[in-house]
Amino acid sequence: MQNENEEIAILWSEFQSGRLSAIEMGQRILHAAVQSKGAVTPDLDRTRRCGYPEVIYGAGKSPDSIRTVAEALLKANAELLVTRVTAEQVRTLSEMFTHTRWNHIARTLRIGRERTPLAPESIEATASENGFKDNDLPGMVAVVSAGTTDEPVALEALETLAWMGLPTKLIQDIGVAGPYRLMAQVPKLQQMSAIVCVAGMEGALPSVLAGHVRCPVIAVPTSVGYGANFAGLSALLSMLNSCAANIAVVNIDAGFKGGYMAGLIAAKQL
After folding, report:
1. Residue spans per domain, the chain
2. Looking at the domain 120-267, which fold is it?
3. Which portions of the chain are predicted below pLDDT 70?
4. Mind giving me the DSSP string for 145-193?
5. What is the reported pLDDT for 76?
6. Contact between residue 120 and residue 162 where contact means Cβ atoms under 8 Å apart
């Protein structure tokens, strides 16, 4: 079977000889990149287009469906990320793949092709060993949460950033009910390339935090709160209406999306 480079070389030769038009060559290349495998179609070209490979959303998928996509992605990538996985899915997938890291609180599973994926704190330690200190570590992202009940969403963001290979700082339980807790962390937060701020209830923390830092703050509302929180809707609207100019907001409980957006920002500084 021909590999992708050989196939593209043949298509280019046919185009140069006039046997293929430019449109036909493009269609053939796209067809080669998109390989349907039954009910799933792995996006094998996403790393080239977007810088990072496809992420598998695990909720509602069978382990076999996840394995099909994972095997295809691992042929071209050293590591992949599966979000919103259950313990039952993880038990089955751990038997299928040798190198896995499961964060049961974040509901994420990272799968390595040749080695077990690094924990977030190990990525920071590796960067420090290479001569960087906290106050000059390029691409550092803080993941901040208002309360301990926001932890699952915050850790989903943290594992996403680790999958992206970025150093992180996790700072939890510094919500606005105790303002001194945030102020104690401000000097550290001012050194970050980007911040993911996770909060439920009224969603006030991102606005307060953003007024102290010069980097983008990706606000993630959570569904934590009492009745008038409307399962995160009030926090979402509070964040969208923030007066702080350096805040961008993602969906309710979307730790992956918050981490990914912050990661793209921070990766530009590497």
Report:
1. 1-33, 38-117, 120-267
2. Rossmann fold (3.40.50)
3. 1-8, 26-40, 125-138, 270
4. ESSGGGHHHHHHHHHHHHHTT--EEEE----TTSHHHHHHHHHHHTT-S
5. 87
6. yes
